[in-house]
Amino acid sequence: MLWETDELVKDSVLSYTQEETILEQKLLPYDLLGTAAHAKMLESQGYLEKGELEEVMEKLSEMYDEQHEIEGEDVHTFIEEKVTEYTDAGKKIHTGRSRNDQVVIATRLLMKDSCIEISLELLELVKELGEFAENENQPIPGYTHQQQAMPSSTGLWASSYVDALVDDLKLLQSAYEVIDQNPLGAAAGYGTVLDIDRDKTTKLLGFKSKQENPIYCVNRGKHELMLLQALNHVMLDVQKLSEDLINFSEDQKFFDIPKEFCTGSSIMPQKKNPDVLEIARAKADEVASHEHAIRSIIGKLPHGYNRDTQQTKKPLVESIGTTLATLEILADLVAELEVSDSFEIHDDIHAADTANKMVEDDLSFREAYQEVKQKQEYCSGDSIKEPVHQQYVELEKFWKAEKSSFERTKESLLDS
Amino acid sequence: MLWETDELVKDSVLSYTQEETILEQKLLPYDLLGTAAHAKMLESQGYLEKGELEEVMEKLSEMYDEQHEIEGEDVHTFIEEKVTEYTDAGKKIHTGRSRNDQVVIATRLLMKDSCIEISLELLELVKELGEFAENENQPIPGYTHQQQAMPSSTGLWASSYVDALVDDLKLLQSAYEVIDQNPLGAAAGYGTVLDIDRDKTTKLLGFKSKQENPIYCVNRGKHELMLLQALNHVMLDVQKLSEDLINFSEDQKFFDIPKEFCTGSSIMPQKKNPDVLEIARAKADEVASHEHAIRSIIGKLPHGYNRDTQQTKKPLVESIGTTLATLEILADLVAELEVSDSFEIHDDIHAADTANKMVEDDLSFREAYQEVKQKQEYCSGDSIKEPVHQQYVELEKFWKAEKSSFERTKESLLDS
Amino acid sequence: MLWETDELVKDSVLSYTQEETILEQKLLPYDLLGTAAHAKMLESQGYLEKGELEEVMEKLSEMYDEQHEIEGEDVHTFIEEKVTEYTDAGKKIHTGRSRNDQVVIATRLLMKDSCIEISLELLELVKELGEFAENENQPIPGYTHQQQAMPSSTGLWASSYVDALVDDLKLLQSAYEVIDQNPLGAAAGYGTVLDIDRDKTTKLLGFKSKQENPIYCVNRGKHELMLLQALNHVMLDVQKLSEDLINFSEDQKFFDIPKEFCTGSSIMPQKKNPDVLEIARAKADEVASHEHAIRSIIGKLPHGYNRDTQQTKKPLVESIGTTLATLEILADLVAELEVSDSFEIHDDIHAADTANKMVEDDLSFREAYQEVKQKQEYCSGDSIKEPVHQQYVELEKFWKAEKSSFERTKESLLDS
Amino acid sequence: MLWETDELVKDSVLSYTQEETILEQKLLPYDLLGTAAHAKMLESQGYLEKGELEEVMEKLSEMYDEQHEIEGEDVHTFIEEKVTEYTDAGKKIHTGRSRNDQVVIATRLLMKDSCIEISLELLELVKELGEFAENENQPIPGYTHQQQAMPSSTGLWASSYVDALVDDLKLLQSAYEVIDQNPLGAAAGYGTVLDIDRDKTTKLLGFKSKQENPIYCVNRGKHELMLLQALNHVMLDVQKLSEDLINFSEDQKFFDIPKEFCTGSSIMPQKKNPDVLEIARAKADEVASHEHAIRSIIGKLPHGYNRDTQQTKKPLVESIGTTLATLEILADLVAELEVSDSFEIHDDIHAADTANKMVEDDLSFREAYQEVKQKQEYCSGDSIKEPVHQQYVELEKFWKAEKSSFERTKESLLDS
Fold first, then answer.
1. Which residues in D124-221 belong to E strands, given as ranges?
2. Residue B148, SS3?
3. pLDDT tier at C287 (50, 70, 90 boundaries)?
4. Is the domain defined by A11-92 classed in CATH 1.10.275.10?
5. In the CATH hierarchy, which fold is given to the domain comprising A99-345+383-413?
6. Quick check: C188 and B268 CB within 8 A?
7. pLDDT single digits (tens) D11-33
8. What is the ipTM of this complex?
């Protein structure tokens, strides 16, 4: 322990309070990036010799490339210990920095990186839905109150998800832009008397700006909550999409779920079950619960670092993984989706249009409505409804540029 | 009932499924605006005579000015009935529009308006905190793990809330910009065969753009969730602020809560209780639960309108009211806040700075840390820490401009 | 204000911290009962003259019978003021009691009473489902993965809800039995030096036992949470029942929802919408969110009374009302439910039974499974599956006995 | 795969839909118990020869003793495959049973076992708190509104948690009693045409009764929710206890948290942080979120098995582990807890008692209240308040008996 002393801390206390290693492992590359930036800044401020910096960077780069398995207390101690084994300069890399600092900067970089990956994967799903809408457009009934209600089309339906998911891309961008502030340099939340240069690390780490107030910098969980809220929206739409796909392929028979996405039953030989969609539907609620967990954990905490906030890491990391995996498999599934050739469309879905056409012939709508209701005769449908959704070219550009920028930051920090 | 027929619907069914009148009442001005825009568009498309439009607008303006109390089924039926009593043209204002349409456009306008009001009120709180930070800056200990830990100041502390709340203003802006799409014209979710002009209503109602896909337009709850997520962040910060103020004014004695914000006890004559802050702390959890309610209600619903979504209105309206009331009273309270003149600061909060100063004298931080730990002698503190937070001039401009724009839209639609 | 002094408390503070009158009104009868019991005890302990008690009881009984509309600060102050207007002895009824005491005892009685009402209403729904299962038993397919899977029956299906709801009755009973402890006498949470007799009020108010620890007595929200958790289960089952009824009456066509429970569309003349079931489905999520609200509000509060807990009253009262209303209308609906005469059952739901029959002929199940899977020939179905569920006679007796007991308590306290 | 056929199911589909092995592993002993009971029943019904049963039991017992690491699809398939490798009779053990059946019975046994363990651990914490209350009783101020308010004692305070946690033991018992129904025999949710004997497996597995309706038997998640609700209460009290302990040992200085339960800071050499209590406080919110997750996942699902319900396993298993670990460490901590010898008690906490004593001298309470308020002179305190809480002997007996009974069931099924 970095803070170890003569007092014996119980093992049970350590095992109870430390996090699962798998979570620590996720932070390793990002903590290495943060440490590299901090070390370079220390050197430029005179706290580290040039030669010391070189040795430190050698070890950090090696650890980055080899992705060591973490041992010991946590990822932050692990890095400091490994570097110190390699060079005495390791003892100085904690100068002007606290573990809070370390975990906050590592988590912030993890969030930026994950946000980029998720947005690019979401763009894949958006494109598959858009292509399906264009290429497989056929008439289906549109539902209200879970009843056939109005003429619709597979294209209109699929493009409604494009429209929703593009809004989610905007929400991801907003969360990303608020997250994109450098918290490094807050130390234990009250800054440091040492002469560190926060603008320098901001630039080295590729942040748009530095986060100003040190107390706010260590207010862990708030930025995590922002990202989780955006993921909640993504998964909400995925849940609705899954619900529709299950209904469309079961009772309503509009679609065939590709066989390679279905599983069987151990007892009923005839079954083809849409398990992927059911699991996706459930995982959306997991992400919503993770948002709830983070909000609850940080709620009512007084200012300054509190250990409670450590527990926000697990719901964050799990939600990122869940969302990515779900988007990937759904994009695959939509790419293979086929419209069925036999299902029944009720005649009365044209009732409203029939009334509307009477309005064109100068009846008031209320009168037309009553007449159609009594006669129950419907004019036949129109031409097929075309897909329609907002554009997302700018969003695509944004995420691709951020991806490149993040890659460049990594390279310039550690790959030289 | 607009859809009433010979069949008798049970009264208990109607009372069970209809909303509280107080919620309907909130939508009245916004439904009138939506109806006015729709009517003007109908006239320009030839579905309404010029004279008919004039009569309709007369009645809508009168209802807007007088804010009638709603009777009957709901606000949408109420408006149609009142206009139809006044002029036969009333029968035509539902042309090319469904109740879904009406409620969606009215709710969207309510959300825009509320978002503006809340942001302006939040700016008031931000300013009060900023002024307190500048004018009442005094040394206090900064806490970690709910212990005195490092030297801090009332200015550094108060400006940490400015920094956080400015991030919330950005989140409100993001939600606002996604909400700011015109859904009017989706009819029952599948468009209409009538020749309506959605660009016209978009312009008349002052939306930045129209929401493209009609199925997505009637997907109620998603935009409500966006706003609630932003309000959840605002109230999360308010909750932390309240927690700090309670701690600071009770056990820690840094602040005096102004007497006019405290209440007494029915049994203990000596008490001065910070009820406002306790209630604010609880109300933050109410808003979080309302977000949860909306997310749950809309979860797993298939595409197309489902009546379930009506139940998103109550948590939306209540959260808006709660947030506004809380911001108002906290801005007042902060304006009156005073730093107490007698509290104790522990000497050992200077331990880290003492170690840091040894680092300046060329010890490694780990060695300095151990030395301070053993000697327990601390150098005295620095000069007072200054407040620091990000700027928000652009955000202030944005919200003031939106306020003006919304006012102009109302005037041009109804006050002529 | 009972605690009013020279200091001016801001009106905005009072309006922000006080509850909606409608919530206070709900507590009036229960606070009167608690006050009556407290007054009787005060007399028997010598703090009130016999004649004083008689005057106090006259006024309390009158207020109970006439259900006055509350004015002023809150229900507790209202009662004290009204009694004091009537007799000077009113000034003494707060002796040995705090407002915390009052609100806790009133809420506890409200919860007991509501729990009885809800359980009896739930028994009505259980009976209607049981009768439907017996009288309208017809073959339907049973679903897995939202597909027709196995032979089932309307009786087996409906009795599965009986089985679940009877478990809920047990959960309600458990909650009730923990709630059924008398908290009166805790004063501000630390007892009183006055010689009050808590056993006496326990007996007068019909509680099974007194709640021992005064700090725990004023720990508001925990018992509310217990009741809400049971209601959450009731509404969860109601939600699933509603989902099934919607599916069965729409795409699957097994049932006809009675017309008097359906509403129409303002734009589509042909629609008959199952709004009651959609609203019930949403209201289940409201109750779940109210449980969440109470849990969050009381979470992390330190010991002793905190004003935050006042905010648990609204989700409590609303959930009780919502659950009662939902059970009533669903019992009505189930009473009118009819099985449709035309729907299609897939042949392959007999696949598992076909394999099972081969097992009777001595094939291992895995071999039979593979053979059925390849041949796709199915033996025809069995006789209809009979309804089956656990008994609930004892639960019915319990709730009826509690109802009588509560009525007797009310009468003996106030109707003499 | 048990249901594998010619169709190629994508690997990504399998990895997306299957659970983490660690969760499967937890179910292994319970699935072995369920399988043993099912096999014994099959033999007594003539579906298995006596010799076949013996071979099957040999393998099941061996697997139980050795706790193999699971490979392959899931725990259920793993057991069937391992037994079938050992004896051809393995092919028959799925007779009259589905995987739903298997998972439901295994989960039910896991819940029973965990509920017993948690209750016994909770009793340990209850005893430690009770002993602390008796042995370390000293005056402290009691708080309201986070202010010193009334005379209290460490004994009164600690016994308030005994009182609350004993209520939780009742809630655990209620949940346990509803959970304690045997679901085995429901097959895929609609029973089986084979002549199985559900009463036999009920007896063999030590259930109090069989769960009657097969559709309800496979309604996964509802019983999990019951257990989680009880755990939520346990952790809610633990959270409040932690909050108090943090306040008491930090600002209020009533207690000293034993050093071996505290951790240090990497940057501030002087710190002793109560991390255990902060983590416990956060973990309470995790359990609350897990309850929320289960409720959300099962909400709105139609009748019959849906794959979504698989996702209830993780929050269940994690909440059980979290609760157990938290109770263990807190019982340890309370056992070492000491009252500090120097803290300040405000004089005015005797104000209410001063007024009450005037009441004994025949002033009305309202008049005494005003007099004390003006004079601000207080009589000195009473003798120390004694601990008080409800008894829990019967609960202790219950849980110990259930523990023995569960042990006997395991032995008689697998250790012969």
1. 139-144, 147-153, 181-182, 209-210
2. strand
3. very high
4. yes
5. Fumarase C; Chain A, domain 2 (1.20.200)
6. yes
7. 899 899 988 888 999 999 999 99
8. 0.95
